[in-house]
Amino acid sequence: MTRPLLLIGQTRTQEFCSIRRWLEAHFDLTQATDFNDLPAALDFYPIILVAMSVRHQFRQSEIEQLRRTAPLAKICVIVGSWCEGETRSGTAWPGVERLYRYELIPRAISEGWTGDPRCLPPTYSADESWLARADQAYLLETPDSFCMVCSRDPEFRNSLANVAKRFDLNLVTMAPTDISASQDVAAVIYDADRNRPERQETLQRLSNSFPRARIVVVLEFPRHDEIREILSFGGHHVVGKPFDIVDLLTAISADTLTSDNLSRSEDGFPS
């Protein structure tokens, strides 16, 4: 039996439609366009998502009322690409998690949202949740396969190499100018260039050199059109900077890989 989930907001836009389709495939989804359209029994939903397309779309008083009406629910605001300032300079709503739209699906996978969040103790904090996810194993396809990190920035390459040691991942690093083919690469982490022509060229080279690898692109505050462009040029998933390292590990792990590893969806995750 699929878990019930309530999605609030205008989700027919290009930016949110792929999220809505993924949620429809994995949950018993109920949708409401705004807070005047909510179903009666809110305590029926263990997870409530609020899709925010523009800043100030929802009032804090509405979120607080939702928190009081469904005190046991996991409430999360999905932040659209036009709301960056809301998460960087806005005041956080108490008791509500905020995720960028491209963070939602990997977070739902890594935290096991299809399980019932109500099984967690009432004092279970966001930090405890992160520690639980960080403590799990992240594995590639086979013991012999490895992850390739492609970046112009030596500090980025070195920092991920240190992370790989912590999680016992086989990882090698290279600059975009040093790309060479290998059959043992299960995943590629590409620290993408802001220059679009260079980014497109590098993506095509990575896709040709590692045809069976899952290519995860890291890009600072990616817009919807940039994500679609990256997927069309060979990327499988986009992780925005600054990123949660657990989200990045989830994106490259074997649990995310499918038997049809070459298929791509708009959100970058298998349906």
Helix content: 25-40%
CATH class of the largest domain: Alpha Beta
Q: Strand order, main sheet: write it out.
A: 2-1-3-4-5
Structural category is alpha/beta
Please describe what this structure looks like:
With 271 residues, this protein is an alpha/beta fold. It has two domains: 4-133, Rossmann fold; 146-252, Response regulator (Rossmann fold). It is 34% helix and 20% strand. It has helices at 14-26, 60-69, 84-88, 101-110, 126-134, 154-166, 196-209, 224-232, 245-252, and strands at 4-8, 28-32, 47-52, 74-79, 97-100, 146-150, 171-174, 185-191, 214-220, 237-241. It has a five-stranded parallel β-sheet with strand order 2-1-3-4-5. α8 links the parallel β9 and β10 (237-241). α4 (101-110) packs across α9. It starts with a strand and ends in a 19-residue tail after the last helix. Residues 117-124 and 256-267 have low confidence and may be disordered.
Give the key terms:
34% helix, 5-stranded parallel beta sheet, 271 residues, alpha/beta, Rossmann fold
Blueprint of the fold:
Layout: E1 4-8, H1 14-26, E2 28-32, E3 47-52, H2 60-69, E4 74-79, H3 84-88, E5 97-100, H4 101-110, H5 126-134, E6 146-150, H6 154-166, E7 171-174, E8 185-191, H7 196-209, E9 214-220, H8 224-232, E10 237-241, H9 245-252
Parallel strand pairs: 1-2, 1-3, 3-4, 4-5, 6-7, 6-8, 8-9, 9-10
Helix pairs in contact: 4-9
